[in-house]
Specification:
This protein is an all-beta fold. The chain is built from no helices and 18 strands. The two termini are 35 Å apart.
Length: 196
């Protein structure tokens, strides 16, 4: 049997087994070491994942509007409005072993730290636009699903789709971009389906 082991975070690990040369890896066993109890905790979901319920939920802070309502696998921001997107919050639903990380490049400030679990990437109340964006899902944790995203830039419109996983991720636009992002579109699909 083959074993695939990956460190996901400080004390979060994924372990997958493969029984033969042609067999695919199993659903990952996700473990976390609890230092206070000095024991391993199994975070692997017991229930089957229902593809229809799996989603990325997002919320954007928009110039002169504030926080919009949470959107499911949809559009965050107002493309073509001239209003800049200033901050983003994202969460995954019904994929408990899957982590989503994201960060934003803020006008005049550079890249934020990586955020996850609904934390804010960007700023509010400072009038600073997002100029770039990057998001990642771990393909071993999120086996069977693919994430893609794109942004709409002020005066330039929608940019190309980017695949968001650790093996092939890229930023939403050229690293030298200084145009304000107006909107972000996110699609999470089963891997068998084609990504836009």
């Amino acid at each position: 049997a083959n074993v695939h082991f990956q460190v996901l975070d400080d004390n979060l690990y994924a372990l997958q087994l493969k029984s033969g040369a042609s067999a695919s890896f199993s659903t990952p066993l996700v473990l976390r070491f609890n230092f206070s109890s000095a024991q391993w905790e199994n975070l692997t979901p017991d229930a089957e994942i229902t593809p229809a319920s799996v989603a990325v939920h997002g919320q954007g802070h928009i110039e002169a509007v504030g926080w919009n309502t949470w959107q499911k696998n949809a559009l965050i921001g107002l493309p073509g409005s001239g209003k800049r997107l200033e901050a983003v919050r994202l969460q995954l639903s019904d994929l408990p072993a899957c982590s989503l990380r994201y960060r934003a490049k803020v006008q005049g400030q550079g890249w934020t730290v990586w955020a996850q679990n609904g934390a804010v990437a960007g700023t509010t109340g400072q009038g600073s636009a997002l100029e770039n964006f990057e998001m990642l899902v771990n393909p071993w944790e999120c086996e069977g699903f693919r994430l893609s995203y794109r942004v709409s830039l002020k005066d330039k419109g929608w940019q190309s789709w980017v695949l968001g996983d650790y093996t092939s991720s890229g930023t939403a636009v050229d690293l030298q971009n200084t145009q304000a992002i107006e909107a972000l579109e996110i699609v999470l699909k089963q891997a068998e389906a084609s990504v836009r």
